């Protein structure tokens, strides 16, 4: 899909506030409501807008400990990776799972847990028990500087 300035303006505005009404969005980008809505629907159908989500404060849910886990695997086969990805996909505390390149790690996981006991249980009873996991290195997040930045459009 070829993006023009209106499409880019729509994407930028909706990344900042996905609850913006069509009228507000149209006013903001300089279009009338009907063509604005058609463009939004076209962006959705093209998959450029993948969804709309509420950002929830983890601390207010009691999830005050965030960590980044670097996970090493024993084999680099599609089957081993598919199994790992399916199993971590079923763990609600895992917020992100990235297959990475680099030194020793194969995956980077971002997790949110209540406390150190919750982390220990997750690590020892779920993550390290996944077939093929040979090592986990954890970095605890002290403070989030920013964590939800819009994509440049």
Automatic annotation (TrEMBL):
MF GO annotations: sequence-specific DNA binding
Boundaries of every HTH asnC-type domain copy: 3-64
Gene Ontology CC terms, in alphabetical order: cytosol
GO biological process, one term: regulation of DNA-templated transcription
Gene3D superfamilies given in the database record: 3.30.70.920, Winged helix-like DNA-binding domain superfamily/Winged helix DNA-binding domain
Keywords: DNA-binding, Transcription, Transcription regulation
Matching PANTHER family: LEUCINE-RESPONSIVE REGULATORY PROTEIN, TRANSCRIPTIONAL REGULATOR AZLB
Organism: Brachymonas denitrificans DSM 15123
Protein name: Transcriptional regulator, AsnC family
Alphabetized CDD domains for the sequence: HTH_ARSR
SMART domains reported for this sequence: HTH_ASNC
Presence of keyword Transferase: no
PROSITE patterns: HTH_ASNC_1, HTH_ASNC_2
Listed Pfam families: AsnC_trans_reg (PF01037), HTH_24 (PF13412)
Domain of life assignment: Bacteria
Database matches in InterPro entries: ArsR-like_HTH (IPR011991), AsnC-type_HTH_dom (IPR000485), Dimeric_a/b-barrel (IPR011008), Tscrpt_reg_AsnC-like (IPR019888), Tscrpt_reg_AsnC/Lrp_C (IPR019887), Tscrpt_reg_HTH_AsnC-type_CS (IPR019885), WH-like_DNA-bd_sf (IPR036388), WH_DNA-bd_sf (IPR036390)
């Amino acid at each position: 899909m070829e993006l023009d300035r209106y499409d880019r303006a729509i994407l930028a505005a909706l990344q900042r506030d996905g609850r913006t009404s069509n009228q507000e969005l149209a006013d903001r980008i300089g279009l009338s409501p009907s063509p604005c809505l058609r463009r939004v629907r076209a962006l959705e159908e093209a998959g450029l807008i993948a969804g709309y989500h509420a950002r929830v404060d983890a601390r207010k849910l009691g999830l005050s400990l965030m960590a980044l886990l670097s996970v090493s695997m024993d084999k680099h086969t599609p089957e081993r990776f598919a199994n790992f990805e399916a199993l971590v996909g079923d763990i609600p505390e895992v917020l992100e799972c990235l297959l990475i390149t680099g030194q020793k790690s194969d995956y980077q996981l971002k997790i949110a847990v209540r406390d150190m006991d919750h982390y220990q249980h997750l690590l020892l009873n779920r993550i390290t028990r996944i077939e093929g996991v040979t090592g986990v290195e954890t970095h605890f997040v002290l403070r989030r500087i920013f964590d939800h930045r819009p994509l440049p459009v």
